[in-house]
Every structure is written in C-alpha cells, then in structure tokens.
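SEQUENCE AND FOLD
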Amino acid sequence: MQQNKDGERKLYRLFGLSSLALITAFSSLYGEDFEDFKRVQNTAFAKYKDANDNAFEAYLKKQWQEYNAFASKALYKKEKPKVITPASQREPLAVGPAVRINVEKEKQERVKAMPKLEKKAALVVHYFGTNLSFIQNTQLSKAKFYPPKQKGVLNFFSVMAASDYQPTLLEIKKICDDLKLNDWGLYLLVQKLSQKYFSNDDDKKLYSWFILNKLGYNTKVGLKEGHIVLLSLTKQQVYATPGYRLAGEKFYNFDAKRSERKSIYTYEQNYPNAVKALDFSLPTLPLLAKEMQEESKTFRMEGKNYTLSYRYNKNLINFMNTYPQVDYQVYFDAPLEEDTYRDIALGMKPYLDGKKANIALNFVLRFVQSGFEYERDKEQFGKEKVMFAQETLFYTKSDCEDRAVLYAKLVKKLFGIGVVGVKYPNHMATALYIPLQGDSVKLNGRRFVVADPTFINANVGESMPKYKSIIPESFIVVKN
C-alpha cells in the first residue's frame, strides 16, 4: 500500500504542476465563467424542476447509436417543361348560370399588443415585423455545449433543466395564441429566441431542442463531426430535406441541404410527453405586423388588356418563404390574406357580375395564365420551391404548381365550386367539378373538367396535348 502511495506522490510531482498550469490557463481564458461553469455542472443535477428530467438525463448518458440519413423524395419524377407552348386563342362559350361576386366588408383584425416588461428583465425578439418581449432567463449564460461530444449535450441539458424556463414556455404559448401561429410559426419563434441567448449554432440548437420538447414536440438532437444536429418529427412529408428513421418514425434536419446524407450519432427514446409532430398546415394566417405594399398584374383576354392591383403584407411573404417543401395539401388549403383577396375580388367584380359561369371561370384562368411569366423554380430560386397563393401573387415569375395553387384558391373563394389539383409526373394543373364539356379527369367516380393555369390561352376544358392521354399520379382535393 505504501508503495502505491509513493507512486501516486511521484506522479503528482511529475504532472501536478503542468496540470495546474493547464487549469490556470483555461481559467484565465474563460475568466470566472469557467469556475461558474464547473459549479453549475456539479449542482444542476440536484435542482431539476421536472421529475421527468432526472429519468431522461439518465437515458441520455447511455451510449448513442449511429444512424444513416435516408434520401428524401423529390417532388417530381421528371424535369418540368422549360418552355410552355401557348394554346391557340379561342373565345370561350358563354354557358352556365350568371355569376355575382360577393365581397365581405373589410375586417379590422390587428395584432394584439404584447405586454410591456421592465427594461432590465426584457429580452426583445424581432418576429417578422413585431417586437416580442420575454422575461430574460439569466441562468442560461452558463449553458454551453462543452465538451463537443455526448457529454456536452448532457452538460447543456443539466443547466437548462435547472434553470427557470417555465416563464418562457408560458410566454411562447401566449404569443402563439395572440398571433395565431401554427406549429411552424412556433418553431421559428423558438429559433429566433435561441438566437437572442446564444451566438454559437450548437448552443442555439440545443436550446431549441430543450424548449420544443418541453412544449410537447417530439424533437431530438444528434452529433455529427462534433456539432449538433436538430431533428424534428413532422406530420407531413418533407421533400428535399435529409432525414433519419428513429424508432420507426422520420425525423428531419431542416438546417441541412438535400445532398447532405452523413450519418449521425443519436438516441431513440422520446422525451416524456413530447409526442407532437410539427404540423405545417396553415388554416389561419398569422397576425403579423402589417408592412403593406402594392402589386399590379396585367393580362389579356379576347383582345383586351386588364390590370388588377392588390395589396399584400411583406411580413407574411417573408414568413411563408421560410417553409421547407411539404405536402401540396398545405399550400392548396392555406388562405389568401383578406386584404389581397378583397382587392382582387373587387377588381374582377365589374367584369364578372352578370357574366355566364364559363366566361367568369376563364377570366380568372387567363389572369393566372398570362399575368405572370413562366419560369421553373430551379431557374428562379436555384431549387424546387412550391409557393403559397400569396407568394405567387408577390413574385413576377412562377411555374405550374404555383399557378395551380393560386387558381384553385381564387376559384374556390370566388365561386365556391369543387376544385382539385391534378399532379402529373412533371406537371400540375387543376380540374373543376362543373357540368361543362371538354377534357376531364375522374376522381372517386366524379368527373372534373381540366383547367390548366400554365397552358396560356387555353380555356376551361383544354389540356396540354401531351397530358391528354396520361393518367394523373395523384389529386389534391382543395378543402378550404
């Protein structure tokens, strides 16, 4: 025993001074924060406010496993046409009942005033034109992803779990209620909040992971080359986004490019009660601060030019632009902004009231066909991008699915008729549930008449020649 003690003393003499020097150097590098950091790690575990955190922390200590990324699906099997040859102009027949456009009175819907906080306690987050105040969690200055491996995730988690995070959760829920934010809006809010607390990307992702789990969303983190990967379970299919199958479910990494398919180390067990999948549905537009701008589109029908002017909220366009590529149903069902729709409806009303249904449907079709330049997403954005109807009205260029979404939304809103999106291997059109002659498709035994918003000059009932004999891959039934 004495020999062992003598050996220990010799080792201490050999390495004690150098170790002390390293610790002193590290401490001087981080100042008092390093000592605080050590103290926090030693005491945080005993201060968890949620009993679930003790069990989950123990699970996180277990050996993580390697998982390979799966290849996300592409929206189209074939390239969309680069050039669309216009149809020969033919005057549409005046058939069907006469229509009358009803426009509701303008609603004064405003963003609710956010509660004012004392300056010393306020953390202000700029959210698409709105300044949101949060009570600052001062304990988070000690949260760091260190060391850059699994142990670092545990260290960060311990600080978060011991901190006073409950007020933040309550504020997030209230803001989402006040601004009518959907799940994606909430996700972005948490992201922006993380950017206020941390400058390091890994710390930001760990903060988002913790908060989203506490809000009930099934979110995980993984490790890739010493950095954090944030993974989210989603309700809808996500395209052109790397994902990982964990416990039989798909989790997506929204921060990565489609080509990134590297393996990661992570875990499978869910945080207790965090079972919700991110739902990208947008049944109600968020109440964002209004930054109103105006746009005009000119189109031609039967030898005459028509111009429609409408307003839009640029903050809403910026919000929609953050969306990853998700199921078409999300885009077809999302509403138009009321100000935008009202301006378009009022602009069309003098030309549609009293006209036969077929003339009215073709007037709207011609607006979508020739009011915008045709250009594929890859040329315009450098990637595939499905646009909400609101976005298509903002941009000067669009391609087939963007026009299909816009036409479907306008027809549904103006006339209240049944409409579906018609998906081909490299094209998308729409079809209307109306008793008119012409090219058609069948869905659940019902006949829908084709209306192609990309086939310039074509009337309702005219398909592009190349798609007349092709059976559509799928249909998107417009619900709202």
Summary: The mean pLDDT is 88. Residues 89 and 303 are 10 Å apart (CA to CA).
